[in-house]
Write a structure and sequence with these properties.
The chain is 25% helix and 25% strand. It has a six-stranded antiparallel beta sheet. With 171 residues, it is an alpha+beta fold.
């Protein structure tokens, strides 16, 4: 079963700011060295905008000033016409993100199409890691709860130091 039989819940003031799903795979060198034109053809109707960036990998903490720097990594960005969806492709991962999350079903449809195109084009041996991250931003103002303290809205596990009685929220 792809989805739960339980009914989903949609919140009019959901705290979800961005949702990102990243799949890591063993390095495919051709992705870093050749423009992904064949891949773009397969996803162009959903992601018509294209940007290529050269990202520098983080230097390893070796303590040796003479250590050579790693080569830049090509990071290909395919973006929807409305700028709400983005697909990133590098030699080590593919990631889908959106700042307009309406539910898992829509996100899964976008992910399924992107992954099908990726697998058809690059034939990865396997996926090493799959990560799904929800980035939430909770705004009391947006929720109409400006005068309610955070400690009344969330458990101390989420409010951290704000849950201590000697800490004033204004500070």
């Amino acid at each position: 079963m792809l989805f739960s039989e339980r009914p989903g819940a949609n919140y009019p003031n959901a705290a979800v700011h961005e949702v990102i799903c990243q799949l890591r795979f063993p390095t495919i060198l051709s992705i870093n060295n050749v423009e992904p034109a064949d891949f773009q053809e397969l996803i162009h109707d959903t992601f018509p905008q294209y940007v290529r960036r050269q990202d520098m990998p983080r230097p390893l903490p070796t303590g040796n000033a003479g250590t050579p720097q790693a080569s830049p990594v090509s990071n290909y960005h395919f973006i929807s016409a409305d700028n709400l969806w983005k697909l990133n492709l590098t030699k080590d991962f593919i990631a889908l993100s959106t700042i307009h999350y309406t539910g898992w079903e829509e996100f899964a449809r976008h992910l399924d199409k992107a992954l099908a195109a990726f697998i058809q084009t690059y034939k990865p041996a396997f996926f090493q890691r799959v990560g799904l991250r929800y980035v939430n931003i909770i705004s009391r103002k947006r929720l109409g709860l400006e005068n309610i303290p955070w400690t009344d809205l969330m458990t101390s596990a989420y409010t951290g130091v704000l849950s201590q009685p000697d800490v004033r929220e204004e500070d």
